[in-house]
Amino acid sequence: MTLLWTDALILLLLLATISIAFYLHDKEHIQRPLNKIARSKVGMASLVVLLFFLLIGLLDSIHFNATQEKNNDIISLLDYFATPLREHTEKTYSAPFATTLYSKEMIAKAGAMQWDYPRLVFGGNHLENPEKEQLPDVLLKAGLGFLIGLALFTALMLLSAGVSYLKQGSVPQFFAMHPAVSTLFVIIVISAVLGYLSLYYHVLGTDKVGEDVFYQAIKSIRTGLVIGTLTTLIMLPLAILFGILAGFFRGWVDDVIQYLYTTLNSIPGVLLIAASVLMVQVYMANHEDQFTSVIVRADMRLLFLCMILGVTSWTGLCRLLRAETLKLREMEYVQAAYALGVKQHAILLRHILPNVMHIVLISVVLDFSSLVLAEAVLSYINIGVDPTMYSWGNMINGARLEMAREPIVWWSLSAAFVFMFALVLAANLFADVVQDAFDPRGAGNEVIE
Amino acid sequence: MTEPLLSVAKLSVNFNKNQPVVDDISFFIYPGETFALVGESGSGKSITALSVLRLLPNNAHLEATSISLQGENLLKLSELGLCKIRGRRIGLIFQDPMSSLNPVMTIGDQVAEAIQQHYSLSKSETQQRILELLQQVELPESKQRIKDFPHQLSGGQRQRVMIAIALAGKPDLLIADEPTTSLDVTIQAQILTLLKNIQQQTSMALWLISHDLALVSTIADRVAVMQHGKIVETAHSAELFSKAQHPYTQKLLNALPSMQSCLEHCAEEQSTLLQVNDFHCYYPIHKGLFKRIVGYVRAVDGVSFAIQKGKTLALVGESGCGKTTLGKSLLNLIPSTSGSVKIDGVALDGLKGEQLRKQRANMQIVFQDPFSSMNPRMLVGDIISEGINALHPDVNAVERKERVQQLLQHVGLPEDAALRYPHEFSGGQRQRICIARALAVRPKLIVCDEPTSALDVSVQAQIIRLLKDLQKEQGISYLFITHDLAVVAEIADDVAVMYQGKIIEQGSVEQVLFKPQHAYTKKLISAVPVLKYNNDSQKKTGIVL
To answer: Which of A33, A423, B190, B517 has its CA 20 to 30 A from that of A63?
Structure first.
């Protein structure tokens, strides 16, 4: 077991979430909005998608030393499961489901040298005559994958039904087509089909150095999640603390905080990011003994990128929160709390903070997507995540040249796009539902008399 | 009888196919008459007016047999056709003069816009007409005012400009939707007189929409009473106010606070609870780069008064006179400048931090707006127990819960209210929660800052009764801040009249209301609309002034 910095933070975050959930689970007024989320079709479907992404991210966050590997390479559980994908590398570009490379080469064929597309080392190498056999073979393998997925899904359903039968003495109504269940079904079947197919083919093709694009896209999920969550985690306390304090206390506190964020805002963010990333690189170069493996180096750089992104991006939310707090502090319920002798810190926590949470939630979700995109932009000028690290940003950055190539290589960009789109869309939809459910004034939240 | 100007037959409106808001109503308005549509908030009276002009929101669904203006069916008109009716044949005045004028256009331009919509006049003719209109609505110094922006005018002056805009098309019918609700009593009286005068000059019909029965009785020829989307009674003014047929109308009339009710008060001397001496509250005016203080707004300027145990002092004044500032700064919610406050023998001035916090239990406040005075994200139970938590931390959870239940019972709310959110309650119920919150710390004095002015008449009567009952049971004193003299008569023992930061007259309630000394008090009292017609069945005799 090797614990990288970001792994530790992710696990810590997970622990915190679980303990908060445990603490809140018997509070009645929290139960009500949670039940509302559970009843929402969109909410549950997007939650399933999010959880699936989270699961992959978590699997990818448990690293260990693969002893059987040659150099002391650190791999994650996900890498372990996806060993065939990881090791099936070709020479260079190949299209999805292709059996040959994407460009012609001189190859020896029946004793003579020929200018043709060479066969792939792994993709479809079990086929004798690819032109005839490929399509039926793909369909057959897809069908087999579908059956495996179906079996997995059924087993899961039977298991959960069995558990709840033992616990409550009745079978839950899973089997009615709840959107969460059908989303789960679709996800399991798609992953089974893709997983089974990728034993024989490169389902999303290969990149310039012949690496499987499907594998890259899956590995990028963790990078995206880390950038999205850790950056938010660093940004939120700064934004909330400074925003609320500035709005609530006014006077010199407000002046100092405003001065701080105006200054920070007027320095171009890219400059700060470049400076800090370069600093980390210099530090790592000077202390090579502490950063022995490529993965540790990449992880350190990712962590610093998250931090500096967090430090540069809190100002916008801070400004919003300050304005909202300025409005809230004049509200009569805050004055009533003063009149009741409630202490200031209690007023801040009980009356101000909960009433700005909707702004926090909305901007966090919007920021989440823009952070994943920011990573792509930063990779573009070489100050993003480490170039050896898998990320959608790096994939998109690489696609710059691929799009200009003739014939065009479209699969890296498309894969990054589809995965990013699914994650960001699910996060947006889920956040909408959460926000509606937790707003007591929202429609449908009334207790009908 | 003459042909009706506007006739509405079987009009129904619902939102998103829910319960109809306006339910199958029919009425007529004759040329030149004043027709009043009266009802409590949510009864559908504004929606009725808006549906005649088809200005409803998109999710509204309108059904009617006919809405005809001098025989022309408005339902059959296209949107374009209707634009020729709006403003030209039917003018409309909204409730809030603050938000119905465009803040970045001069008032002259806004009136001109309305004129050019319907008449093609040359530039000088338009100018001429603007001036005419502004003079018609008696805007003082109208010639200089043409180039003013709305923020340079007072509320009453803005409402005059709104009326000028509505009159620009020389309409046959003027719809006035609560035209005076957000104005002070004295200004309200001026605006009503103005509307009446203009109506007589131009012989147009006036359709007045209001919740205020007393006001309607002074101006309307015919009155329709609306309840839950239905018109329950239509009659001539004299008839309706002297012998109301429908029980709802009778209930409304009974709920009206009357000036006479103070005569039943018994006056017995009690010891003094609150003594305020020479109290000042100034707002500094900052200017320039270093925020130098260049002057002060004297919101409260040397006020002295006393409140006896178990008695109510009403603080009366128009908006901006400093009465709310006084109430809040007594509780130290706004810092006061100088003066002494003594409650039950304890001096409050100069107390700070923890000492002040401990004294908070003595005085509590109930605010005007029941919607913004409770944290929407807290359960009612938590809202009520917040003060107990803060000021009596030794009370354990079980006792606290019991106390919350008792308080809810006291103010007449169901027990399960503790686990619900404020928005699930109506305005009156919310005000009860606010009262319970104030009572939770067992105060000796409650400052009631216009607690009933956002409520309907019938609810207002209930809240006043609740406050009186609580006073009788627990011997609490009230400082009752209000602009409504009729409410004062209902609840107060003593009255102080405030004008521009000073108390200009104070004394017992009978003395101030019936033998006012100061000219301003006299003006204030004469401006209060009083039911014009004697209502023997209700045994209320309005003072004819």
So the answer is: A423
Give ∠ CA B6-B36-B98 in degrees, rounded to 5. Answer: 100
Query: For chain B, first and last CA: distance in Å?
Result: 34
Q: Which of B36, B34, B486 is nearest to B216 (CA)?
A: B36
In DSSP notation, B357-376 reads HHHGGGEEEE-S-TTTSS-T
- Omega into A407 within 30° of 0, i.e. cis? yes
Among A203-217, A255-269, A353-367, the least confident range: A353-367
Count CA within 13 A, CB hemisphere, residue A136.
6
Strands B72-73 and A105-109: unpaired
Tell me how far apart the alpha carbons of residues B442 and B476 are, in angstroms, rounded to a whole number: 9
pLDDT band at B533 (very low <50, low <70, confident <90, very high): low
What lies within 8 Å, CB to CB, of B522 at 6+ separation is B516
ipTM of the complex: 0.79
Chain B residues touching A446 at Cβ < 8 A: 423-424
User: How many CB pairs below 8 Å do chains A and B form together?
Assistant: 82
Q: Is the pLDDT of residue B456 over 70?
A: yes
Q: Is the pLDDT of residue B265 over 80?
A: no
pLDDT-based confidence at residue A446 (cuts at 50, 70, 90): very low
pLDDT of A189 higher than 60: yes
Round to whole Å and give the CA distance between B463 and B449.
Answer: 13
CB contact under 8 A, B378 and A350: yes
The gap from C-alpha B538 to its chain's centroid, in whole angstroms, comes to 24
Q: What is the mean pLDDT of residues B187-205?
A: 88
Task: Report the Cα A103 to chain-centroid distance in Å.
Answer: 34
Asked if residue A172 has pLDDT above 70, the reply is no
A326 and A243 Cβ atoms separated by less than 8 Å: no
B477-482 vs B312-316, strand pairing mode: parallel
The model scores a pTM over 0.95:
no
Contact B373 A333 (CB under 8 A): yes
Q: What is the DSSP string of A214-265?
A: HHHHHHHHHHHHHHHHHHHHHHHHHHHHHHHHHHHH-HHHHHHHHHHHHHHH
Indicate the DSSP class of residue A348. I
Contact A341 B387 (CB under 8 A): yes
Cα–Cα nearest to B371, from B263, B455, B444? B455
Instruction: For strands B312-316 and B338-343, give the pairing.
Output: unpaired
Distance separating alpha carbons of residues B230 and B250, to the nearest angstrom: 16
- Do residue B363 and residue A339 have CB atoms under 8 angstroms apart? yes
Contact B333 A339 (CB under 8 A): yes
Please tell me which of the candidates B360, B369, B423 has its beta carbon nearest to residue A440: B423
Pairing of strands B445-449, B363-366: parallel
User: How distant is the Cα of B395 from the closest Cα of chain A, in angstroms?
Assistant: 15
Interface of B with A (CB under 8 A): 328, 331-333, 357-358, 360-361, 363-365, 367, 369, 372-379, 386-387, 389-391, 419-421, 423-424, 434, 437, 440-441
Q: Quickly state the pLDDT bin for A175 (edges 50, 70, 90).
A: low
Q: For residue B364, which residues of chain A lie inside 8 Å, CB to CB?
A: 339-340
- The DSSP output letter for A350 is I
Token pair of A252 as six digits: 């010199």
Tokens 């899904």 belong to residue: A153
What 3-state DSSP class applies to A48? helix
